[in-house]
Write a structure and sequence with these properties.
The chain is mainly alpha-helical. It has a single domain, classed as Multidrug-efflux Transporter Regulator, Chain: A, Domain 2. The protein contains five helices and two strands, in the order H-H-E-E-H-H-H. A two-stranded antiparallel ribbon has the order 1-2. A hairpin with a 2-residue loop joins strand 1 and strand 2. It is elongated, with a radius of gyration of 25 Å.
Length: 133
C-alpha cells in the first residue's frame, strides 16, 4: 500500500492558500516536505501540520504559539499535552478578544453619544437657538 503524497499546488488548492504561504511555513520549519529535484513532495504529516497551522492562524495565534502546539503532537506526551496547551491558548485568546470587544463597545458608545450631541446641536441651530451668549 503506497502512502498518498501531495504537491504544493495540491495543498494550495485544497486549503485556499498561495504556494508562497506554504513555502513560508516551510521556511519557518513548520512543515518539512521532502525534495525530488526541485519538486516538493508533501506527506500526510505535512498536510496535517499545514491544516493545524492554518487553523491556528484563523484563531489568531502567533506562529510561535502554533509551532509549539503542533510540535507537541509529536512529543512523548502526544495529543493529550497538545490538547491541554491548546485549551490554555484558547482561553487566553478568548480573554483577549473579550477585552477588545469591551473596548470596541465603549468606543461605539462614545461615537453614538457624540453623534447624538451633534444632531441635537444641529437641531438647535436650525430652530434659531444658537445657545451662545
Amino acid at each position: 500500500m503506497t502512502q498518498a503524497t501531495f504537491g504544493i499546488g495540491d495543498l494550495a488548492r485544497e486549503f485556499g492558500v498561495t504556494t508562497r504561504a506554504i513555502r513560508f511555513y516551510e521556511d519557518q520549519g513548520m512543515i518539512a516536505p521532502r525534495r525530488e529535484g526541485q519538486r516538493r513532495v508533501f506527506q500526510p504529516r505535512d498536510r496535517t501540520r499545514l491544516k493545524l497551522i492554518l487553523r491556528g492562524r484563523r484563531l489568531g495565534f502567533s506562529l510561535a504559539e502554533i509551532g509549539e502546539i503542533v510540535d507537541l503532537y509529536e512529543a512523548p506526551a502526544g495529543e493529550a499535552a497538545q490538547l491541554k496547551l491548546l485549551l490554555d491558548r484558547i482561553a487566553a485568546r478568548r480573554a483577549e478578544l473579550k477585552a477588545k470587544r469591551r473596548d470596541l463597545n465603549a468606543s461605539l458608545d462614545d461615537l453614538d453619544a457624540a453623534a447624538k450631541n451633534c444632531r441635537k446641536r444641529l437641531k438647535e441651530m436650525e430652530n434659531g437657538r444658537s445657545g451662545k451668549s
